[in-house]
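Journal club prep — side note

Before the paper discussion, L.F. wants everyone to see what a predicted structure for a comparable chain looks like in token form. Sequence:
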Amino acid sequence: MQLKQFLRSSSFGSCSSKRSTYSRNFDLPEDTPATEIFETGPEYVGGAMLPIFLNDLRQNSDLQDLVEVTLELDDNSIVLCSVAPTPSHNAEGNGSEEEAPNGFLARSASAASKLRRKFSWIRSPSVRSRTSAAPSEDDHFQFYNHNSNHNNTTNTLSAREEMKSKLKLVRSKSTAQRALGGLRFISKTTGESDTNVQWKKVEARFDALAKDGLLAREDFGDCIGMTDSKEFAVGVFDALVRRRRQKTAKITKAELHEFWLQISDQSFDARLQIFFDMADRNGDGKITRDEVQELIMLSASANKLSKLKERAAEYASLIMEELDPDDLGYIELWQLETLLLQRDNYMNYSRPLSTTSVGWSQNLGTRSKTRNLVKRASYGLKCLVLDNWQRAWILLLWVMIMAGLFTWKFLQYRRRAAFQVMGYCLTTAKGAAETLKLNMALVLLPVCRNILTWLRSTRAKLLVPFDDNINFHKIIAYAIAVGILLHAGNHLACDFPRLINSSPEKFALIASDFDNVKPTFKSLLTGIEGVTGIAMVILMAIVFTLATRGFRRNVLKLPPPFNRLTGFNAFWYSHHLLAVVYVLLIVHGTFLFLVHQWWQKTTWMYISMPLLLYVAERSLRTCRSEHYTAKILKVSVLPGDVFSLTLSKPNGFKYKSGQYIFLQCPTISSFEWHPFSITSAPGDDYLSVHIRIVGDWTNELKRVFTEDDSSACEIGRAKFEERGNVDQRGLPRLLVDGPYGAAAQDYQNYDVLLLVGLGIGATPFISILKDLLNNSRSEEQLDSNTETSASDDSWTSYASSSAASSGKKKSIRTKSAHFYWVTREPGSFEWFKGVMNEVAEMDHKGLIEMHNYLTSVYEEGDARSTLITMVQALNHAKHGVDILSGTQVRTHFARPKWKEVFSKIASKHPYSTVGVFYCGLPALAKELRKLSQELTYKTSTRFEFHKEYF
């Protein structure tokens, strides 16, 4: 009999799989050669062995049977699922064979059994496990799998052969192309010229490091550019030396060049072989579990992942379980390649909250690109106007007022008799003095935080950029410094000398202003005007100097005892000298040389109202802090020099997500208040903050709350096990002031959120994520209550629906949030581990996408992080937990590609308004602002950028 019209007369089989499952009948005619039945090729798994088996069928007289074969089909392979007699076999139960109506021979179990034996090697492990877990009508044909050690070995090797044959199909897929470009030992560059240029640098480093023309093994990393991962470089060195079947610790320049050509080879197979050789230390072409563990530890060491090294044995077992399901105790090169190429398939199991599953749409590129200078200029101008119009009109108004006051005072003194004596020196000094009065009044307003917080909730936020209050405060301070130079400089260097040296005739014009006594330079300086003026200049010079970045941020390293002049404490305390400055300013403005009428002495008119507002502000803060004394519920010491405080929420304390509070610990200082973002949600019954230890005050705060030195004001860590179980006796007081407004508090005004936090800069966004989750959960509960009430009796239903509608909160505008957290320390993920897990478990609507980026790990594709990427993908697919963060949120390596991030969000949310909120160092803010402007212009999505610095 021949095999004819294969896969004819189809009927669905009983094998369940993600693949399409078919059941086919075929017969075996006698007149057609078996070699014509199948074409061998990669699309037919086992196709080359089928004709051989058909020849055996010819020679065996008892195989003249008809059997039913069940196959699993996908795009790239065919897997044999089962071979069984047709249901009509032996229908009468008497064992007799009957001729079928179509003339075929009756089915027999012997033919099915032999065919199954012959093709058992193409059955995947998943099929075997599935058939064993769910017995079917053909289970009695599997007896050979368990009765013979010889058959077990044959099946094991067959399973490996099946995996190996599938590898060719997987490698041809487009999804594998990115993996094929990985395993880089040198850099991203692929051009030959780049490799040659890099070799010149390597050659120069060889000349500097080599001794007697030989490069030592331990210097190999420095020579090829792996300075930060020398241990990994030594592993590469040893692998390349083993290839030469040598045992040497030093190489020549010629040997180094040969090694360089191998590690810079652009072929994926060449790079894969080097990577395999690093693990295969005995050179037998096989990797054991211990060798996999050593390679994991080597990769973890290169990326400074200490926790990964501790669990290297567990992850090595995970890899062996996946690649060596038959427990032969080793894996080969092609199996390691299989794991690498299947990485994206494993990643597909990740939740959408950690992968941006966005298809490119027509939103991108809907507007034509700028091709000429005019369009580029108009685009730049448009972005400039959209981004800065609020700042522009405020600054323009301020400059115009200063110019008007300067001109008015300048012209006023230009017409006075004193101008004949002191000239333009006097008019310039008086004009500058008028601007000083204005700016000394305005400089207080940007730091009246309670007033600004209230104004944020009004329509004033549409016109005034409240987020730039500190920047405006600094600009006014610079204007004050310029005014002081003009005013004091002209007095001391110009008009005072002219007054002293004036002729009696000219002095007679203004003699009445000086009680008819011509002053001396000493009398001018020692008078009330002179003393108060000089004192203000000195005090303000101290304040301005200690407020500069070099002093405030401890950038300047001064020797003791001058080192106390640097840091936040020096900045904070020196700023309180301004209280003395304002007192001196009022006195200085009261005793003027050339003005005698009280209504002409306008200094008090400028500063009285802002000064009263600021005094009221500070008084309110003091009273409120006493009222808002909080109890400590929990203290947690976290990795990365961070600790968290969980406090009881004071009565009447209401806040919005994204806002911040000030904390004061009187045990440390009765004057210092420090700001911290709130990480709890408004709906929580507690307050929480996360504090990074970066200065004297935060160090002291941690010591007070975590160390036990038998002091009355200090407590031990043992008392901080669970929230609410803290012994309050002997605890230091902690005062709370706030809340205060920040840019992120307006997140509900946007359709989509893009939240970007660097390190501890993630804190304001944690509160937002929790608030979004709480609101989403509340809406689900209200919807559920409304649906339930609809099925009740009429009166009960009416009452329930009325209560639900009256209690239902206004639905927030935000429908999606994308959170990007970029950090250098893997321990940072412990800070908000609970929040991440809560979002993963409770975000049923897919409202939040979370993306963790660890910049200390080499980017995906680098050989030093390749094995970590494999383990991460495999562990996340099997257990749903990321190996670095310990949460369901997968961790990415290196830094995000921000242009791609913005483009995907624009593609996913066309015709939406995206609020981009950033908290971190200023350097990244420029890039995010630029991308917000660019994508707003090029797409139908509008991006509005807001920033907070720490």
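L.F.'s comment for the group: The mean pLDDT is 74. Keep this in mind when we get to the figures.
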